[in-house]
Amino acid sequence: MKTIDELAHDGLAGKRVFVRADLNVPLDGTTITDDGRIRAVAPTIARLAELGAKVVVASHLGRPKGAPDPAFSLAPAAKRLGEILGTDVAFATDTVGDSAKSVVAGLADGRIAVIENLRFNPGETAKDDAERGAFADRLAELADVYVGDGFGAVHRKHASVYDLPARLPHAAGNLIATEVGVLKKLTEDVKRPYVVVLGGAKVSDKLAVIDQLLGKADRLLIGGGMAYTFLKAKGYEVGISLLQEDQIPQVKEYMERAEKNGVELVLPVDVLAASDFPDLKTKAPADYVTVDADAIPADKEGLDIGPKTRELFASKLSDAATIFWNGPLGVFEHPDYAGGTRAIARALLDSDGFSVVGGGDSAAAVRTLGFDENAFGHISTGGGASLEYLEGKTLPGLAALED
Asked: Which tens digits make up the pLDDT trace of 83-141?
């Protein structure tokens, strides 16, 4: 993949550079609750502006149904980008219409604009190649050069990610180059012991990556909602905990393969269990009990790993040379159930190994719980993209940037 510096050799001053970023930030109304993805792409945008480019930033946000929806407007993200960069950022109220054309035409060298949510146009996510291509053609009219830097979207075969690079001279932005470099450390010449922590709600979301890791990792630590399917597969009572019964046969096969391959698969030994899911808005104190993982009451659900598990998991991370963590260990949004996720983050910081926080809710948890992001080896901006890379899949957005 070409880099921005290689593009700069041909001169970028005065050229319209389309930056496919990932500004898909969480919103509470119009308030951004986690601006990590904006801050991650800001250096690429700033560098292009310094080179004199007319920078046209594009992204998706949420899942609008192919039509404008004020709830998913990128206006708050554009405003926050300007604050981070310390400069005015123009905003177009459509994607390829009159507003976008006018705003881009009015850009001076070194200035920046954000166009509206790409998913307001059905062509962005269309399954039909012709429909997607037609939208890519219209986006290409706004630019002379393409820079892909939305790592969180590179696993999607979308118009702005996959089709548009084929229509313009293209390169990878600094963020994508960094992300790929880090992920190679998890797949090529890995320093050992290599320990992976997997959490999150559904085991089905992680099946493919577990399949790959059973041949690569030295230890797998399983927590979060997905752990209860593993515990059930061991014959334990899990009460009303999150459970995917249809995945139990596959989980049993993985547990057998882990033992055969010499991969240590570590499950919770105790959990915090409650009769009711916590109120995440008021964050009122929760009523829970701490029980052994094989003794969850039939009328309760596990909502976080317990103190013995936190100590166990920390001990399994203490000698790691390489760590990958994806998925919270409990309902971290509530203070009573954030202890497990906090313990894992602390264990990564205490480790001398190279640690990667695999995007998504894990990255949000690190920031929500007040940890210094710079203290970790790397915090990814793409949870799904990171997992698919580790699964060995070809990611359309990366393939499109290859020369």
From this structure: 999 999 999 999 999 999 999 999 999 999 999 999 999 999 999 999 999 999 999 99
Of 360, 382, 383, 397, catalytic: 360
Strand partners, 57: 19, 114
Of these residues, 20, 37, 219, 300, which one is catalytic?
37
Identify the active-site residue in 302, 339, 384, 397.
Answer: 384
Q: Check if 152 is active-site.
A: no
262 catalytic, yes or no? Answer: no
Taking the model in full, what pTM does it have? Answer: 0.90
DSSP structure string for 190-234: --SSEEEEE-SS-GGGTHHHHHHHTTT-SEEEE-STTHHHHHHHT
pLDDT attached to residue 57: 98
Contact 34, 25 (CB under 8 A): yes
- HSE (CB half, 13 Å, CA atoms) of 143? 33
Report d(CA 83, CA 348) in Å as an integer.
Answer: 31
pLDDT score recorded for residue 363: 87
C-alpha distances (whole Å) from 95 to each of 114, 135, 140, 162, 230 are 9, 10, 11, 17, 45
Which amino acid is present at 329?
L
- Quick check: is 37 catalytic? yes
Regions of the chain short of the pLDDT cut 70:
none
What pLDDT was estimated at residue 402?
A: 92
DSSP SS3 for 142? coil
Catalytic residue among 2, 39, 167, 202: 202
d(CA 51, CA 15): 10
| 360 a catalytic residue | yes
Angle formed at CA 158 by CA 364 and CA 32, multiple of 5 degrees? 30
